[in-house]
Specification:
mainly alpha; Ferritin; binds MU-OXO-diiron; 74% helix
């Protein structure tokens, strides 16, 4: 069982994670359109990761004996001025998601929902990684500036990213 406030907040977070997947898929389409296949690959993996985040919460809500309610997903932007502008938006968005996760933890503490609090700790750690990986690409892009050779080098690096589904929770 989840308290009403907690259930509403988890449903909202599922929507936020799905929007994140939508945003990164839109960025993948943008990178495909400018022939930066490695950047596109990074975005595809990121979108898959976001769907995994959404499903993790989705499953947790069921595990707690409640019903998930899906809401409409907002339309993301479809183009950016440059790869750097896109990655700056990734970082800004991840910082926003971090604030949502922090709010969820605050609510779990307020509601004395220890199970939700423990569950959310995984997301706290994940957000540190999410922000760091976006910032890493931003720093590399700033180093190469307008240099095409540098941009293609980053593209090749980002092309190696592979999304791997984490193993199923043995306790689930
Ligand atoms: Fe699911 Fe990128 O936070």
């Amino acid at each position: 069982m989840l308290k009403e406030k907690m259930l509403t907040a988890f449903n909202k977070q599922i929507n936020a994670e799905m929007y994140s997947a939508y945003l990164y898929l839109s960025m993948e389409a943008y990178f495909q359109s400018i022939n930066l296949k490695g950047f596109a690959n990074w975005m595809r993996a990121q979108a898959q990761e976001e769907m995994m985040h959404a499903m993790k919460i989705y499953d947790f809500v069921f595990e707690r004996g409640e019903k998930v309610t899906l809401e409409a997903i907002d339309k993301p932007e479809s183009s950016w001025d440059s790869p750097l502008a896109a990655f700056k938006e990734v970082l800004k968005h991840e910082q926003y998601v971090t604030s949502l996760i922090n709010d969820l933890v605050d609510l779990a503490i307020e509601e004395k929902d220890h199970a939700s609090n423990i569950f959310l700790q995984w997301f706290i750690t994940e957000q540190v990684e999410e922000e760091a990986s976006a910032d890493e690409v931003i720093q590399r892009l700033k180093l190469v500036k307008e240099n095409n050779a540098g941009l293609f080098m980053i593209d090749a690096q980002l092309g190696t990213r592979v999304f791997t589904m984490p193993p199923a929770d043995p306790d689930a």
